Amino acid sequence: MADYEYIQTQPSLDQALKTIQASSYLALDTESSSFYTYINELCLLQFSCEGLHGIVDPLAGLDLSGLGRIMEDPGIEKIFHAAASDMVELKRDLGWKFANVFDTFLACKYLGFEQCSLSALAEHYCGVTLE
Fold first, then answer.
1. Which of 23, 79, 107, 113 places its Cα 20 to 30 Å from the Cα of 122?
2. 105-122 core/surface letters (b: 16 or more CB in 10 A; e: else)
3. Model-level pTM?
4. Cα 121 to the chain's mean position, in Å?
5. What is the distance between the alpha carbons of residues 126 and 83, in angstroms, rounded to a whole number?
6. Residue 56 contacts residue 43 (beta carbons within 8 Å)
7. Are 26 and 66 in contact (CB under 8 A)?
8. What is the pLDDT of residues 51-64, one digit of tens each?
């Protein structure tokens, strides 16, 4: 398993942004509180880029506008699985806009796979079984 950085301070986020800006891609996933609540709230950002794997706490009061600018940067490919749900949350909660998005779920559907879950793709392409 890759090492990751838990980002909960502005200086550590600012340092992470420098690494992300130097990368050609940013894979991103979100977690929210929608399962047992009436109000859906963004609770966690997980990301990976060249040289860094990180977890950002969006409830820690950090200025996330730098990440928002990266989402709009067409020079950095943003990779999501089932992008629509993540992008809706990020637009709603943070006002982010997006450029150069690749959705692994849609790519899987386009290629005609019967199973397009993230775990099915991880097993097929990486030989990794997700629990």
1. 23
2. bbebeeeeeeebeeeebe
3. 0.89
4. 17
5. 21
6. no
7. no
8. 999 999 999 999 99
